[in-house]
Design a protein that fits this description.
Blueprint (H helix, E strand, L loop, with lengths): L3 H13 L12 E8 L4 H20 L6 E7 L5 E8 L2 H5 L1 H4 L4 H11 L10 E9 L15 E8 L3 H22 L2 E10 L5 E8 L2 H12 L2 H7 L6 H4 L2 E9 L6
Antiparallel strand pairs: 1-3, 1-4, 2-3, 2-8, 4-6, 5-7, 5-8, 6-7
Helix pairs in contact: 2-5, 6-7, 6-8
């Protein structure tokens, strides 16, 4: 995991592009935890950790809307994710030092937390930090019905290009998403982690056919075609890689 200090240049560059205006609501930060697993005991161990240790502890700390997911379509399966929102970046950055302070957590997490080298809880774990867009400052959890989720990351060739892409979202693209049935859960600047500069966002749908149909509506939208054909705003100019994952919520997920 990159340190908080390492994220400061990224934050400064983003703010230098005029994207640090005070939002109408408190801006949230997001920690995204990724667990690369092997089929077998690890999947059960991580699901138990999420359900009986991590989420109850986070809720006691005042952190709600915690999402837990597994990859359905994408590389390196099985892979699980935990999405943790908070208005405090410090809270998220120090979670692993705070969690053991809760006796209930330590007891419930013991199998996962202290798994031996001969029976590890995961193959590798990665943590990234995000700051919410000004134009979408708060995670919106969908209604608790059967859902799938799409997690997309756009990498840009420079911080200036990244700022332009964020500007496209805040200047109209998010509204076109919503009009087209692409329901956002969150949008975030990636502040610490890998593949910077980049942004990550999550969408939700009732099923795969709806996902495909609504993306088609978006792609054929006159408003989208107008925005995306403005000089300097094509993907070739400001986006050099897109990662696209399809997720489903685990039983423990609050999203």
């Amino acid at each position: 995991m990159a340190t908080a200090a390492a994220s400061l240049p990224a934050m400064a560059m983003v703010e230098g592009q005029g994207m640090a205006q005070a939002p109408a609501a408190p801006r949230e930060f997001y920690q995204l935890r990724r667990y690369e697993l092997r089929n077998g005991p690890q999947t059960t161990m991580v699901q138990n950790y999420f359900a009986h240790a991590l989420i109850p502890a986070l809720n006691r700390m005042g952190i709600d809307r915690v999402g837990t997911f597994k990859i359905d379509i994408g590389p390196e399966t099985p892979t699980y994710y935990a999405l943790i929102p908070s208005t405090s970046a410090e809270m998220l950055l120090t979670l692993d030092m705070r969690l053991p302070d809760y006796a209930e957590f330590s007891k419930a997490a013991a199998e996962f937390w202290a798994a031996p080298a001969t029976a590890t809880a995961f193959q590798r774990s990665e943590v990234s930090m995000m700051g919410a867009f000004n134009g979408f400052p708060k995670l919106i959890a969908p209604k608790p019905t059967k859902r799938i989720f799409q997690l997309r990351t756009y990498e840009s060739p420079s911080y200036a290009a990244h700022a332009k892409k964020v500007g496209m979202f805040e200047g109209g693209e998010i509204a076109i998403f919503q009009k087209s049935g692409l329901t956002p859960v969150f949008f975030g600047h990636n502040l610490a982690g890998t593949r910077l500069p980049s942004l990550t966002y999550m969408l939700t749908f009732p099923d795969l056919p709806t996902l495909s149909a609504n993306w088609s509506v978006f792609g054929s939208s006159p408003e989208w075609k107008e925005i995306s054909h403005r000089p300097g705003l094509s993907d070739a100019d400001i986006v050099n890689n897109i990662t696209n994952l399809y997720l489903s919520p685990l039983a423990s997920s609050q999203i």
